[in-house]
Amino acid sequence: MNRNEMLRKVQEADFVLYDTALFLDTHPTCQAALEFFNQYQKVYTEAVADYEAQFGPLVAIDTDTSQGWTWVQGPWPWETEA
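The structure corresponding to this sequence follows.
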């Protein structure tokens, strides 16, 4: 998978989690929805881990600062697309 495909997978799983959380807010005892949410938590976590393993952190808060502030190193996404 390329960068855009991997990012799309993260975004899709994030949307599913957000939408399901809204449903669970109004249906907190729905076991099927809770199981679905748990399933997509795993999908999201794996998608983020796969993306970050290849391309680095998605958000600044996940930046490894042991080597300094590396968040801004390398090209920004809009600098590599043409």
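The chain is about 65% helix and 0% strand.
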